[in-house]
Amino acid sequence: MTLLLKADRVTKKFGGLTAVNRVDFEIEKGMIAGLIGPNGAGKTTFFNNITGLYTPTEGQIYFDGQVITGLKPHLIQKRGISRTFQNIRLFGQLSALENVLVGEHVRLHGSILEAFFRPPRVMAEEKMARERALDVLDFVGLGRKIADQAARNLPYGSQRRLEIARALASDPKLLLLDEPTAGMNPQEKRELTDLVRHVRDNMGVTVLLIEHDMKVVMGISDRVTVLDHGEKIAEGLPQVVQKNPQVIEAYLGTGAAAEGA
Amino acid sequence: MMKKILARGELIAVVLTAFLALILGGWQIMLIAALAGMLIGLSAEHKANYLPRAAGVAAFVGLILIAITHFHNTSLSTLPGMEHIPDQAKTVGTYLIALGVIIGLAVLTAWIHNLADERKRQVYFIGLMVALAVFFPFFEQCPGLSWTNFKFVDMAAGCSEQSNLLWIGPVIVMFIYALQAIGLNIVAGFAGLLDLGYVAFFAIGAYTMGLLRSQQLGSQMGDPDFFRWSFWIVIWIAAATAAFFGLVFGAPTLRLRGDYLAIVTLGFGEIVPIVVKNLYAVRIFEPISLFIGQLFGQKSSDLMQFCLLGCGAKPLDITAGTKGISPIYPPDFFGYTFTVGEYVPWYFLALTLLVVSAFFIYRLRASRIGRAWVSMREDELAANAMGVDLIRTKLTAFVLGAMFSGFAGAFYASYTTLITPDSFDFSISVIILAQVILGGSGNIAGVMLGSSIIMLIDRVLLDKLKMVINGVLQGLVFKGIDNQALAVFWTSLTDATAYKILLFGLILVVMMKVRPQGILPEQTAARRRAA
Fold it and tell me: How large is the ipTM?
C-alpha cells in the first residue's frame, strides 16, 4: 500500500493553548481511517491543519509525497484533499446543483470573456460539469429531482449528503469528513455509513473521518486514531483501540478504566 | 371572510395609477397606462379566465386613469406654474389609445407571466421590456399623436415641444445609474463585498473620457484638438482605466472583511474626487538630484533639477480643479454627431450599453466565475475549502464592477459635456447601493427595477409633485390670503424635493422591515412553479 497522507509531528498552538501536540499520522491509499477523541481533543483543529485553514505551528504535512504545509486551502483542495464541515456549511442560497458545481470549480477553466462569448469548448465543459454534478447527486443518494432546490431548504440529512456530494465533485484523492453522522438517528447513521463505504469502494477515494459515535467508527474504519488533549494516545485496529485502557479513560474517566481492567 | 375583489398587485396598480395621473397628467397618460397594465398583468394569478379578468381590471383602472388625467388636464393644469399640457393631450383619441395600451399590456403581461415554461417566460418578458424601451422615446418625442394623426416620429415638425420631454432625459440618467447598479451588484450582490466608494470608478471613467475628448490637455500642448480620440475607443479606455484602478484599490484591501472593507472603500470614494479637485497645477521634478544634493548639504534652491511634468511657464492643469472639464465632445456615429438636447440617439446609446452589460453580467453569473462569487458570499470559508481562490475571485468581482462603472462614467461625461469633482459625491455611492438593496441584491432585473424606481422618484416625481402642490396652494388656497410670508412658508414647507433624502431613508427602513431581500429577490437556479 502506498502512503497518501503523512503528518509529521504536527503542532498547532493558539497563544498558550496547544490544541494539537506533535501528532504523527499516516493514511494509506484506499483505506477508511477514523479519528476519534473526546470533545476538545483537537480533532477538528487537526483537520483544519491538513486542509490549510490553519498553518501548523510546527511539523510538516505530506500529501502524495509532496509537502503541503502552509498552502492556502484552495491550493490544497486542488491537490486532491476535499472536506466537509462539522456544522454544515453549504451555500444556502444556491441550488443543490450549483453547490456541487462549486465543488467542481477547480476542474473547470472558463475565463471571463469565455463566460460572455460561450465558445463551444466552454459550453461542452459546462454541460459535462452539469452531467457530472447530477451523477454525483445520484451517487450520494439525493437523486436529480432536488437539483434545483435551494440548499438551505433541504432537510438536514440531505444537507449532510449534499455536502459530501460537493466535496466529491472535485474528484478528490482524500475525503475528510468532520462528524458526518452528527445529529442523525440510528437508521440515518447506518445509511450514511454505507455511503462512506460506497464512496471508498466505487470512487476509489480514501476517507478520513472524525466521528463521535463509537459504533459508527468501529464498524467502518480500517484503522482508528485517538486524540486526547491534542495528543495521539492510541492507534490501530478498531477492536484493539477499543480495549486500550488509555482510550477508555479518556472517554469515560479513570474510574471506568479501572473497572474495565 | 370577505372575498377579495382585487388582488394585492391590482390594488397597488389602482393606487399608483391614481397617484401618478394626479401628479403627472398630460402626455404621461401613455406611460402610466403601460406601467399600470404591466402591474396588473404581473398580479394575474393562474386560474380559469385570468386573461379576461386582467382585461377587465385593466379597463377599470384605465377608466380611473382617464378620469383623473382629464381632471388634471382641464382643471389642475390651469393653476399657476402648471400650464404645460398641449391640446392634443386632451383629445378623446389619446384617451382611447391609452385605454388600449393598458388593456393590451395587461393581457399580454398576464399571458407571459403565466407561461408554464420558465425559460420562455423569461425570454418573452425581456423581449417585452426591450420592445417597450425601444418604443418609448418615440411616444414621448411626438406630441402630434392623436386619433387622426397617428404617427410616431416626426422630430422635425410637431415633436419639438420641450415641455413634453419630461421623461426621456431622466430616463437616460436612469440608464446610467442602472448600469452602475448592475455593476455594483457584481461586487455587493454577487460577491457580497460592501463597497461604499463605488463612485470612485464612475469618476475615473468620466475623467478619462473628459481628458481624452476635450481641449483640456490639448490646449496646453499647443494643439487643442490633440485629444479628440474616437468616442468608441475612449469609452473602452475609460472602462479599462476604471478596471485598472479597481485592481490597484482592490489588491491591498480585499483581504479585509465586512465592515473594514466598507470603510476602506468609503475612503477611496472620497479620495478620488479630492485628488481630481487638486490636480489643477501640477509640476513634477525628479527627486533624485534633490535627494543627493541634500545629502551633500546643498540648499534646494541652488540645485539643478530636471523637470518632468508641467515645465512650461504655467504648471500643467490636468483636471481644472473645481471648475471641471468642459466641453467634452459628444460622440460621432458614422457621420452623425450627437447633440445636446436631441435625446433619442443618446437614449439608444445608453439603452444599448445597458442591455449589453446586463446580458454580459447575466452570463457571468451563470458561469463558474459567477458561482464562485456567490459561494464566497454565502460562506467564504467553505468556498475556499472547495477550491475557490478568495483573493482572485474577489478581485475579479471588484475589477469588473469598476469596469461597468467606468463605462457609465464615460457615457455620463459625454452626455452632460461637463464634469466637475462635485458630480462624484459620496451620495452617489449611497444612492446606487440603495438601488441595489431596494431592487433585490443579487438579481439583475431586480436591481434595474430598484434603479428605475429611485431615479424616477428622484428626477421626475418629486419635481412634479412640488409643482402640483405649489399650483394648488397658489391657485386655490392662497387666493384669498394676502400674507406673502405665510405663502412663502407654506411653499417651502411643502417642497417635495427637499424631502428627497428623507424619503429614500424611509424607503430603505421600510424595505428592511417588510421585505429585506428586495422587491425582486434573488432566485435560486430555478424556482419552477408547480404547473
Answer: 0.92
